[in-house]
Amino acid sequence: MKLCQSCATTFDTTTWRCPHCGNEPSILAGFPSFAPGLSSDEGFEDTYFHNLVEFEARNFWFRSRNKLILWALKRYFTSAKNFLEIGCGTGFVLSGVATAGSELKLSGSEISSAGLAYAAKRVPSANFFQMDARAIPFVDEFDVIGAFDVLEHIEDDETVLRQMHQATRPGGGIVLTVPQHAFLWSRADDHAHHVRRYAARDLINKVVSAGFRVERVTSFVSLLLPLMMASRARQPISKEQFDPLTELKIGRFSNAILEKIMNIEYLAIKAGLNLPAGGSLLLIARR
Fold it and tell me: Which tens digits make up the pLDDT trace of 31-46?
């Protein structure tokens, strides 16, 4: 069901025009916009989307995370019919879902219209709209909602989780990935406008408080944790000296080796092992 942002009426029509008050979202850069005043995201650099498009498809971390997300969707939500990704960025995850042969009806949201333009080009079959994740215009609508490295950008992440609960159908659920371990905080987190890196218990408590039942939590980027620690220790303290693309600019050979290491983790997680520590967390929960 759609939720009118003006009068809070729920309705199920093919258009966004509220049958009660006549309100409908504006169009921003060709997409329905529910938060036009926030179209330039303070939590993410719009110019970074161009860099992501260039590096995502060949970077071991993005590729490995996609593999884990696709497995989680297939393993835990076998009967799902639709899927919303909050903070879909350039559409790399949605593109992976689409090309994997999934029959899910796909939707993607971004607070930045700049990101949506890239995503729509990658996945023309998906529905896209600009919105604030703290005010999701749906009720009981999606079988699965995903937010992949999004919550750490938002101060009020608990409101976002409650909104995800509202927009998820009973029996449906969410898939989340977030950066883990406060001791890994570095200049890269500052540049990415992160608000926090999570501890597993904190994330679990927030998800449960929002009304979900947690089914699975595991770390990933675990075998590479020592490498991450060393990399962050070498990062320059000066903002002027820091190059945010360094972690994306990895040679083909190094990418291949790192991806093979990540694949070992994937196989362990797939086999049921919950890794206790790592650069990131994967959480699956059900409403």
Answer: 999 998 886 555 556 6
Residues 273, 253: Cα–Cα separation, whole Å: 28
pLDDT at 53: 81
> Is 178 in contact with 148 (CB distance < 8 Å)?
no
Domain regions of the chain by residue span: 33-286
- Residue 139 has what pLDDT? 98
Q: Which residues of the chain have pLDDT under 70?
A: 39-47, 234-248
Q: Where are the beta strands (DSSP E) in the chain?
A: 2-3, 10-11, 26-28, 31-33, 82-86, 105-110, 127-130, 142-148, 168-179, 213-220, 280-286
How far, rounded to the nearest angstrom, does the alpha carbon of residue 108 sit from its chain's CA centroid? 10
Closest CA to 33 of 128, 97, 121: 128
| Model confidence, pTM | 0.93
Spatial separation of the C-alpha atoms in residues 28 and 128, rounded to whole Å: 11
CA distance 92 to 98: 10
Report the SS3 class of residue 32: strand
Q: Is the C-alpha dihedral spanning 91, 97, 102, 104 positive or negative?
A: negative
Q: What is the pLDDT of residues 49-97, one digit of tens each?
A: 777 787 888 999 999 999 999 999 999 999 999 999 999 999 999 999 9
Give CATH superfamily name and number for 33-286.
Answer: Vaccinia Virus protein VP39 (3.40.50.150)
